[in-house]
Write the structure tokens for this entry.
Amino acid sequence: MIGVLVTATDNIVRAGLLALVNASPDLTVVGSSVDVDTVATLVEELQPDVVLLELGLQDAGSENLLSLGAIAQRVSAIVVLTDDPQAEWTTEALRLGVRAVLSRSSAQAEEIVAAILAAAAGLVVLHSDAVDSLLGVTPSTVRELPTSLMALTPREIEVLGMIAEGLGNKTIARRLGISEHTVKFHVSSIFTKLNAKSRTEAVTLGARQGLIML
Amino acid sequence: MSSFPSERTSALLALSNDLAATVEQAGQCVVAVKARSRISSSGVHWRKDIVVAADETIRRSEDITVTLSDGRTVSVTLAGRDPSTDIAVLKLPDLDLPVAQLGEATSLKVGHLVLAVGRSDEGSLNASLGTVSALGSAWHSSYGGLIDQFVRLDLTLYPNIEGGPLVDAAGQVVGIAVSGPRRTVLAIPTATVNRVVNQLLEKGRIARGYLGLGMQPVRLPERLKQTLNLPSLGGVIVVNVEPNGPAEQAGVTIGDVIVALDNTPVSDTRDVQAMLSPDRVGKTISVRMIRGGTVVELDMTVGERPRWEE
Amino acid sequence: MNIQAAPTRQTDLAAEFAAIAELLCRCTVQIKSDRTGFGSGIIWHPDGLVITNAHVASRPDATVKLWDGRVFEAAVTARDSVRDLAALTLKATDLPAATIGDSSVLRVGELVLAVGNPLGLVGALTTGIISRLGFVETPKRQEWVMADVRLSPGNSGGPLADAQGRVIGVNSMIVGGLALAVPSHAVKRFLLISGAEAV
């Protein structure tokens, strides 16, 4: 019987994870916690085999790596559920001894149980989608025409052109006679459609589609 | 203040004291920079009331603050930025803050001990020790920036130290420490920082080369590569030509596939971007293209990217 | 920083590193607490007081192996899992104890050294500088000595020393290429509070 300590700040998520663990014949809940801070002490008291930890999007930063480090010293198997962690965060988490990193929003119940069992057995579990970014195969190194990307609207192309000029949101808003809030909305949409993480990257990717003149 | 080593002091203790003293001395011109939501970065008080920081750590153009050694937080304005050289310039209000003691990156040798110094957002100094792992001549970044010297470091650049000064054995600032491609750590040398700061303060932004072309990367058939004796299978196809722009004036038309610029093979728009550095504005470059199944060569004068009035 | 390139200076450095490495090895012990591997510990007092991390000494008893090969059974006499410290007592006297330094006068940039048993290699020496000092949330807000040193899990519980070989920290964890050590003044406070030693 594998003892699991469940941690999640959201009550509904925690209830769901507790139910999931209880439903599995090989797993048993030894305790639950509402935040990462209390987990380290609980682990000392309850001595679980696996800690199942849900981290919200804003939590996947370096501050939480330190907390994870503290937990990792006390229990050997940690399974983390988080949204879209950066490759660097995942690499660091793995170095600290975290055994599994799964997507919080898309992981299925069977996947989570499988990850807990695998982690308890000393294996490391990652989703195959996560492995690409860990190995350094980022979108910009794959030279393909972006056939499956959604097309930018004419307004978005206009805004992208101004971003290429180095203009800030305020100036773009003034130039186009729209609110800064609307500009931010367009910028966000552009980033998503181009799969860009910064303005410079958006310009490079836009240039690759011929949307920006060089 | 640290005690100065006497002849009887151990070499190790002397080295340790020297390192700590260098950090303290160089640290006087280092500020913490808060321009992104999570971890702060660092900046160098380069000239009176001018702080230089790493552009990629500046994630917003307003509400930027810096933290000084006494923990005080001061609002600053973004005076200009150049992502192609990873330099951002912040303007401080009138403060009595020591200015960096600048040296030249050209004095560095591979194997030299160097320190990257930063300041964390509550005001305390941070440092990382490393060595110069590789040196090279001037290079162009993939965004078309000209960097006067290639300086790669074997050093752990903690996220909050990025943008802080790279300090040599003599205690001088030879550049700013930034993260490069593929997780390398690089220094942007003092010469580059001075040049870019001058341009940004004078004009607000950096001149960029411009051709007036919209392009997309293409992959050529192997047969064509062999027949035309091309260096690679890559090229960029012209999908848009700006009327009266530098490319149209040179005779480039839609459908042309550019395979080389100034004898450098081009297989992606990024290769074109890398060619459009400020030093190429006004220069004539050769263009090798495929048109109608044959190779055509033209000369084109690189223009300057048109600028919007703010 | 005027580093002389003269050969005599370099030989001095190499010899001093070696001397400190030996000093530290003598006062570092290997600790086996349960089935999950080894950690390190520091002989804090010649009368058999050993300091290590709470997470290294996870059971009430542990087996402690000295530098010279002698093996002792030890009992955990105090633990603070928040500060990650534990005190063990061995039935021995005249043990080679560490010289303890004052962590409150450390400066960023100072050289630090660590020895440990990474991957079973006993006595491996690693060096770097103090990168950062002060308080970090881990998750509780605590004071740490943070060093730009390459450590591995086997160094946990072992000593972090200054350029004179004085122990100023107990290595606790590694995050993002940064080694975090419990400051020696925190160890003194832990010993006072827990009564494990009258200081």
In short: Residues 1-7 of chain B have pLDDT under 50 and may be disordered. The CA atoms of residues 151 and 300 of chain B lie 32 Å apart. Chain B has two domains: 11-203, 209-304.
